[in-house]
Write a structure and sequence with these properties.
The complex is a heterodimer. Chain A is mostly beta strands. Chain A has no helices and eleven strands. In chain A, the strands form two sheets. In chain A, strands 2, 4, 5, 6, 9, 10 and 11 form a seven-stranded mixed beta sheet that branches. In chain A, strands 1-3-8-7 form a four-stranded antiparallel beta sheet, with no helix packed on it. The radius of gyration of chain A is 13 Å and the shape is globular. The termini of chain A are far apart. In chain B, strands 2, 5, 6, 10, 11 and 12 form a six-stranded mixed beta sheet that branches. Chain B has a four-stranded antiparallel beta sheet with strand order 3-9-8-7, with no helix packed on it. In chain B, strands 1-4 form a two-stranded antiparallel sheet. The radius of gyration of chain B is 13 Å and the shape is globular. The chains are: A mainly beta, B mainly beta. The interface between A and B is medium-sized, with 25 and 23 residues.
Chain lengths: ~110, ~110
C-alpha cells in the first residue's frame, strides 16, 4: 500500500521567504510526527499530532515554525521568514496508534539561500 | 540530559564480513530502543526494536541487536554484510514508547567489494 508521502521533495527558498511542506500520512494513521534532520546529523523531534490535536510542539525551534493538521489527516509544516539555519531535511512520520513504531516519509530537503 | 551516542561516524567493512555498530544511551531508566536504516534520499526504515524481555532482538534483513543494561548499550550486528547494506544507520531511544525518538548522530556504513 501507499506509504507516507511528502511534497515537495526539494525546496529552495530565498532567505526571508515563507515555505509550506506537506505530509500525507498513511490512511487511518492516528499519530503524525515531524522531525528535522540537519546535514550529517540524526533527526530531531519537532512536533506531534494525535488526530487533529497538536499534543507536543516542544521541538519547534522558534515561533517562525508552525504545524497544523486540521482534519486529522494531511499535515503542513510552515516556516516563516526562512533563515539559512533552517536548511535541513524535514521528515514526516505516522503510526496507526499511539506507541506503534513510526513509518517515515522520504522527506523534503529545504535549502535556504 | 537524555542522549543517544553512536561513537563511530563511518565504518568500512568488506562484503561477507561481520558487522557491529555501537550505540550507547544515557537515560534514567531503560528506554525503548530502536535501530533504523536510511539509504540516500530515502526515509528511515525500522530494522528492529527493544521494549523488554529477551535481550537479543532479531530484525529484518538479517540484523540483530543485543541490549546490555550494565553497559547502557544496544549494539547492532550482522554476521555477513552484503553490498546492499551500505547506508546510514541510526540508533534511537524513547523513554515512554515508540515515537518521540531521540536519535544518535548516525553511522555511515561503506561496503568494500
Amino acid at each position: 500500500g501507499a506509504g507516507v508521502s511528502q511534497s515537495p521533495r526539494y525546496k529552495v527558498a530565498k532567505r526571508g521567504q515563507d515555505v509550506a511542506l506537506r505530509c500525507d500520512p498513511i490512511s487511518g494513521h492516528v499519530s503524525l510526527f515531524w522531525y528535522q534532520q540537519a546535514l550529517g546529523q540524526g533527526p530531531e523531534f519537532l512536533t506531534y499530532f494525535q488526530n487533529e490535536a497538536q499534543l507536543d510542539k516542544s521541538g519547534l525551534p522558534s515561533d517562525r515554525f508552525f504545524a497544523e493538521r486540521p482534519e486529522g489527516s494531511v499535515s503542513t509544516l510552515k516556516i516563516q521568514r526562512t533563515q539559512q539555519e533552517d536548511s535541513a531535511v524535514y521528515l514526516c512520520a505516522s503510526s496507526p496508534t499511539f506507541n506503534s513504531p513510526l513509518h517515515f516519509g522520504n522527506g523534503t530537503r529545504l535549502t535556504v539561500t | 540530559a537524555q542522549s543517544v551516542t553512536q561513537p563511530d561516524i563511518h565504518i568500512t567493512v568488506s562484503e561477507g564480513a561481520s558487522l557491529e555498530l555501537r550505540c550507547n544511551y544515557s537515560y534514567g531508566a531503560t528506554p525503548y530502543l530502536f535501530w533504523y536504516v536510511q539509504s540516500p534520499g530515502q526515509g528511515l526504515q525500522l530494522l528492529l526494536k527493544y521494549f523488554s524481555g529477551d535481550t537479543l532482538v532479531q530484525g529484518i534483513k538479517g540484523f540483530e541487536a543485543e541490549f546490555k543494561r550494565s553497559q547502557s548499550s544496544f549494539n547492532l550486528r550482522k554476521p555477513s554484510v552484503h553490498w546492499s547494506d551500505a547506508a546510514e544507520y541510526f540508533c534511537a531511544a524513547d523513554e515512554q514508547g515508540a515515537q518521540k525518538l531521540v536519535f544518535g548522530q548516525g553511522t555511515r556504513l561503506t561496503i568494500n567489494p
